[in-house]
Amino acid sequence: EKMGFLSNKISIDEVKPGDHIYSWRQAYVYAHHGIYVGDGQVNHFTRGDGQETGTGTFLDKMIVSSSPNHGDSPCPNCGDRSKLGGVISSCLDCFLAGGDLYLFEYSVSPAIFLAKPRGGICTIAPSDPPEEVTYRANFLLRNGFGVYNVFKNNCEDFAIYCKTGLLVANTDVGRSGQAASMVAAASVVLSSPLRFVAGFGGLAVAGYGMYCVSRLVSDIGMRWDVSKVPVERLIADMDDMVGTDCQPEEI
């Protein structure tokens, strides 16, 4: 299956430097994303073993470390990286962790975007050229991408930033389509318009419509609160925030 309806499975020999790739984890509950930088290596943003996701929900137990644990037989190329967090580089096999390889799509039409009911597999936003993408991914490998958070700053956020250079001003939810889908689904459940529709069929149609609209307006290619931020400025701003936080309070 290549460029299928629900996702975009590709073979390993098809992947190219600058591609945003992903692999499903935990029985297709969520996907782990990264940027293929060439020579069999993938740069990806991970939640290290033992770190909190910051949600305070069941997701803290469900979303485990993104770094594969090989037990007593570490990867001959990567070694044991199961406890590492932040932006790391892994071989393609370690990144996939036994899963299949999928290609994240850019510049899709709104119709195609809505036709794919699951978030985190495509965006309306266009991608920058591959050399810019790999430059950002390697720069962030050396300098980090902040603190991992499943809703505000996750592996998909990292990969989308590398591909587009776009940052969201409102950080309640980042660029991640997976996070946007979870928020959209939760909103539908909490605001089910039972008093406005007749019967289960009407409720299902209305709920799915709300879900689709919420996903669409949250997409990085549709949002108004985004701006292009050079990766050097991103890191400088992060350093400034850390420096400010460390300043002693005036008495």
From TrEMBL:
InterPro entries: LRAT_dom. Residues 22-171 form the LRAT domain. Signal peptide: none annotated. This is LRAT domain-containing protein. Transmembrane segments: none annotated. It holds the Pfam family LRAT. Gene3D superfamilies: endopeptidase domain like (from Nostoc punctiforme) (3.90.1720.10). PANTHER family: OS05G0310600 PROTEIN.
